[in-house]
Design goal:
This protein has 639 residues and is an alpha/beta fold. The protein is 41% helix and 14% strand.
């Protein structure tokens, strides 16, 4: 049996995505489907005539994640088939089992369960005789094996936290599973409210811990250096030489500062024993220390990023030595930013070989150092490897791939000058994720809006999570599946609006090329705000958008079930908010005071009902000011 399983696995080791929305969706028990089942039937029945001989098998001492995986399996099996599976912790000769996690069946299967094979989130899904083995090495792998089973065997589709499709069957076959599956990226996280605010939803989208397994996140230099002081205090008072002359960054060549930095970092790591990653991130300013030592280091080591890599590597060496002495089993990765002043890698370009090389060995990331590339200045309507539009980001990505074996990416999916604006990365997302994978990226954090809902929020979470697992999937097929399942009767109209916006962006780009004034999509406030004009958003277009939604509302009104009607109406109204926002911003002169009051009141009511509470990144407020600020501004200026 062991030999048979290993041979089967050798024949089929693949990186694949979830099946919902792509060809290969399963239709158990002869249910209707217009696609071909992903796996061949084994001839074994999991459920027949509403009954089963199978039980869930857990390890004798299951982990919390294994218990949760079994609970999810039990819940969705019962919803789909009416069968509630019994859970056991021991096998018998006559039993049939759905084995979840590190069970006795897994131990005797001959499968090599190791991090090198599966990583944190990879898993085995193998039919062994009558038994189905679902197991990962650790992390969330076992849970994702269960989700793969639910999706491909029962057709369960997780579209959003409040939209999970569970087909109903009385007969369910077992398939000839023989899979060793790993995601395209070891770590996958989305900075969206629907995932950061709902861990269960994130798991069902097969996303990792995100910021949850970070002991320090984002811009942390000042946090670390001042950690041993009382809140609100800073070493700037007595040690101004530890900081840049303008006080915005640390001086990374100051040895005294570095010693205190390392001392405080050790304390932070010790106080957060379960964290894996610690960001050593410069402050959120496009600045760097300009003292004589730093300038000399920049000149010798390939710029500001070289100076920063030397600093981080020296800190990492001390942390590695300290952990070896105090906690040798602990795995800690220190991560630094390739961002703003340090976005460009400390490399040289070899034109003959079309390759990048580190300027010296000192700037090469140590084995316990990760580099998080954040292409803050990229144009997101074009491929990040576009030599014309994204030349600087392209060079940075390829350069950092030569410097770091643990290359990470913090990318962006929102215009931070207008949260509600549908973000124009429709044509670049697939290419960018593929480029990241091809250049060795192991971790992606895609930042949308994490503290409010925005336009097509759940659609983006669904598509991005699928593409993070496997960027070779068809975006169009994923869109088709989502619109139908999520917007239901309103789907044709919301899709019409969606395609209208996409077509409008294409027209803007074509017009820009003709005028030698290219149209770009930026995430930063100062560049993103440039698109919020009547030249980009004519009233005729906005009126067309609102007309589409009026037709959608007419269709929604025909839904007899009140709860269903209200749910679809709420989802549809959320997508209407951008056009309504721009009408109030750009074209108030077309309306009377009474009409404007009605427009503002209805916008406010619908926005808060739909969970839209933020609208822009501004005022120095993390996550941006509350929407009430804009509502107040409209009432003051327009009424």
């Amino acid at each position: 049996m062991k030999k048979m399983i290993c041979c089967l696995l050798a024949a089929l080791i693949a990186i694949i995505g979830g099946s919902c929305g792509e060809s290969g969706r399963t239709s158990p028990g002869g249910g209707s489907s217009n696609t071909t089942p992903k796996y061949e039937e084994s001839g074994i029945k999991l459920v027949e005539n509403g009954r089963t001989d199978y039980r869930i098998l857990l390890p004798r001492i299951p982990s919390d994640r294994e218990r949760y995986a079994a609970e999810e399996l039990t819940t969705y099996m019962e919803k789909s088939t009416g069968v509630r599976l019994e859970t056991t912790y021991e096998t018998s000769s006559e039993g049939k089992y759905l084995s979840v996690g590190g069970t006795d069946l897994l131990q005797s299967s001959g499968l090599e369960v190791s991090y090198s094979r599966l990583g944190d989130d990879g898993f085995y899904l193998v039919l062994s005789g009558n038994d189905l083995i679902m197991a990962g090495y650790g992390g969330d792998g076992t849970l994702f094996a269960v989700y793969e089973f639910l999706e491909t065997t029962l057709g369960v589709c997780f579209y959003a936290a409040d939209e999970i499709v569970v087909p109903e069957y009385t007969d369910v076959p077992l398939y000839k599973y023989s899979e060793e599956i790993r995601p395209a990226f070891e770590e996958r996280a989305l900075g969206y409210l629907a995932t950061q605010g709902d861990r269960n939803n994130a798991l069902r989208m097969r996303l990792g811990e995100g910021v949850g397994n970070w002991g320090l996140w984002a811009h942390t230099h000042f946090t670390i250096i001042n950690y041993d002081l009382e809140p609100g205090k800073s070493y700037k008072t007595d040690h101004s030489d530890w900081f840049s002359s303008d006080g915005t960054q640390l001086c990374l060549t100051n040895e005294e500062m570095k010693a205190k930095f390392i001392e405080n970092l050790k304390t932070i790591i010790a106080e957060k024993p379960n964290a894996e990653y610690f960001m050593l991130g410069q402050e959120d300013q496009n600045t760097f220390c300009t003292c004589g030592r730093c300038r000399a280091s920049n000149a010798e080591n390939g710029g500001e990023s070289g100076t920063q890599m030397i600093f981080v590597n020296s800190v990492a060496a001390e942390i590695k030595k300290w952990l070896k002495e105090t906690n040798p089993q602990r795995n800690v990765t220190l991560v630094t930013f390739a961002y703003c002043k340090t976005e460009s890698a400390p490399t040289t370009y070899d034109e003959a070989t079309d390759s990048y090389r580190p300027v010296n060995e000192r700037v090469v990331a140590a084995d316990n150092v990760g580099v998080m590339f954040a292409p803050i200045y990229a144009c997101f309507s074009h491929d990040i490897l576009d030599k014309n539009c994204n030349a600087l980001s392209r060079t940075a990505l390829l350069g950092w791939a030569a410097v770091s074996a643990k290359l990470m990416v913090w990318t962006y999916s929102s215009n931070y000058a207008a949260y509600l604006q549908p973000f124009n990365n429709y044509s670049s997302l697939k290419a960018d994720y593929s480029a990241f994978r091809e250049n060795g990226v192991v971790y992606i954090y895609d930042q949308g809006i994490y503290n409010s809902y925005d336009s097509f929020h759940d659609l983006r979470v669904y598509i991005h999570s699928k593409m993070l697992w496997n960027p070779e999937q068809s975006v169009t097929e994923l869109e088709d599946a989502f619109f139908s399942a999520y917007y239901k009767q309103a789907a044709p109209y919301v899709r019409e609006y969606y395609e209208l916006i996409k077509t409008h962006y294409i027209a803007l780009e074509k017009e820009g090329k003709e005028k030698n004034d290219p149209f770009h999509t930026y995430c930063t406030w100062n560049l993103g705000v440039l698109t919020l004009t009547s030249a980009y958003w004519p009233k005729s277009l906005l009126n067309q958008c609102l007309s589409i939604f009026e037709r959608a509302y007419e269709e929604i009104a025909k839904i007899e079930d009140v709860e269903e009607r209200n749910k679809i109406l709420k989802r549809t109204k959320r997508e209407s908010l951008y056009a309504r926002y721009m009408i109030l911003e750009l074209y108030p002169v077309y309306y009377t005071v009474t009409q404007l009051e009605e427009l503002i009141d209805s916008f406010e009511a619908d926005a808060y009902e739909c969970g839209v509470t933020r609208y822009v990144s501004a005022d120095g407020i993390v996550g941006g000011p509350d929407l009430s600020k804009k509502i107040t501004e409209w009432r003051k200026n327009l009424l």
